[in-house]
């Protein structure tokens, strides 16, 4: 069994965080390894996610159901998925507190069976914590990008800050300044353009998981007083990352 619990702070109004937590597009981008996520009914989604835990890797097809929904404060979530690596079934709760900054409280557990359940518990727990951390960081980046002003708003603010020399001269001579507006295509394109936040690639997610797992293992060994073994682990991990980047290229 995997258990997760913690908090994450967002420098955003509660309404913005709540809206993001119900958006299938946002959810598909913050779930590491998510290939697709479609809304199939009210408060129900189906999707596919590719995940690796130690030597076990594969895709899960599953369903996510939301209930006990209390806008904009939180909801309960049930997940169920199966694939070649095995079967996953879990339940969790999300609760929002405050209103800019807003704190997300999460708590949940999942049952694993099949090949994925044969991986050591410590490795499973470290991987789950890493994926959760990366997903919440992606969510924070997306919400921050959504709160940025659209390009059209910035341009309008700059244009209205001070009249140009041509406008001032026309006013002084009594001539009416020529009306000038953006071309329809330019206006619609500017209005549609919204700031976005890049989501990590599959390689970046994998490297970050490896880093977090190595860090957890190093802490455990250091706690037992074997510092030399910690240095060996960190050196080996650094060499592994270097070889990975040389073979596959640095992730964009």
CATH class of the largest domain: Alpha Beta
* Quaternary assembly: single chain
Residue runs with pLDDT of under 50 for 5 or more positions: 166-195
CATH topology of the largest domain: Alpha-D-Glucose-1,6-Bisphosphate, Chain A, domain 4
Give the H and E element order. EHHEEEEEEHHHHHH
Outline type: globular
Radius of gyration: 24 Å
| Largest beta-sheet characterization | 7 strands, antiparallel
Treating each run of at least 4 consecutive H or I residues as one helix, how many helices? 8
CATH H-level name of the largest domain... which superfamily? START domain
Would you tell me the structural class of the helices and strands?
Answer: alpha+beta
Strand percentage, roughly?
Answer: 25-35%
> Termini distance?
34 Å
Count structural domains: 2
Task: Label the CATH architecture of the largest domain.
Answer: 2-Layer Sandwich
How many beta strands in the DSSP annotation? 7
Tell me, rounded to a whole number, the average pLDDT.
77
In spatial order, strands of the major sheet run 1-7-6-5-4-3-2
The portion of residues assigned to helices is 40-55%
Structure description:
With 252 residues, the chain is α+β, with helices and mostly antiparallel strands. The chain folds into two domains: 2-147, Alpha-D-Glucose-1,6-Bisphosphate, Chain A, domain 4; 201-252. Helix content is 44%, strand content 31%. It contains eight helices and seven strands. It has helices spanning 14-21, 24-30, 121-146, 151-159, 165-172, 184-192, 202-223, 227-248, and strands spanning 2-10, 34-41, 44-53, 56-70, 74-83, 86-98, 102-113. It has a seven-stranded antiparallel sheet with strand order 1-7-6-5-4-3-2, covered by helices on one side. Strand 6 and strand 7 form a beta hairpin. Helix 2 crosses helix 3 (121-146), helix 3 packs across helix 7 (202-223) and helix 7 packs antiparallel against helix 8. The longest helix is centred in the middle third of the chain and has 26 residues, at 121-146. The chain is globular. The model is unreliable at 166-195 (pLDDT under 50). Residues 166-199 have a biased composition (Low complexity). Residues 155-199 are annotated as: Disordered. InterPro entries: CO_DH_gsu, START-like_dom_sf. The chain crosses the membrane at residues 230-248. This is Carbon monoxide dehydrogenase subunit G.
């Amino acid at each position: 069994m995997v258990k997760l619990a913690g908090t994450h702070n967002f420098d955003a109004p509660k309404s913005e965080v709540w809206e993001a937590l119900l958006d299938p597009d946002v959810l598909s981008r913050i779930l590491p390894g998510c290939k697709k996520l479609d809304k199939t009914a009210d408060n129900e989604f189906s999707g596919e996610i590719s995940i690796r835990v130690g030597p076990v890797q594969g895709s899960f097809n599953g369903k996510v159901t939301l209930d006990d929904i209390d806008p904009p404060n939180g909801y309960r979530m049930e997940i169920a998925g199966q694939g070649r690596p095995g079967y996953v079934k879990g339940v969790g709760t999300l609760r929002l507190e405050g209103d800019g900054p807003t704190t997300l409280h999460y708590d949940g557990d999942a049952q694993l069976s099949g090949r994925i359940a044969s991986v050591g518990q410590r490795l499973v727990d470290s991987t789950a914590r890493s994926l959760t951390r990366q997903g919440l960081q992606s969510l924070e980046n997306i919400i921050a990008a959504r709160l940025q002003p659209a390009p059209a708003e910035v341009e309008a603010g700059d244009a209205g800050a001070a009249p140009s020399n041509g406008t001032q001269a026309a006013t002084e001579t009594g001539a009416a300044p020529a009306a000038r507006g953006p071309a329809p295509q330019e206006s619609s394109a500017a209005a549609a353009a919204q700031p976005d936040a890049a989501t990590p690639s599959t390689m970046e997610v994998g490297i970050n998981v490896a880093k977090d797992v190595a860090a957890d293992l190093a802490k455990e060994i250091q706690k037992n007083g074997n510092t030399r073994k910690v240095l060996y682990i960190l050196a080996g991990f650094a060499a592994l990352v270097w070889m990975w980047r040389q073979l596959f290229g640095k992730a964009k």
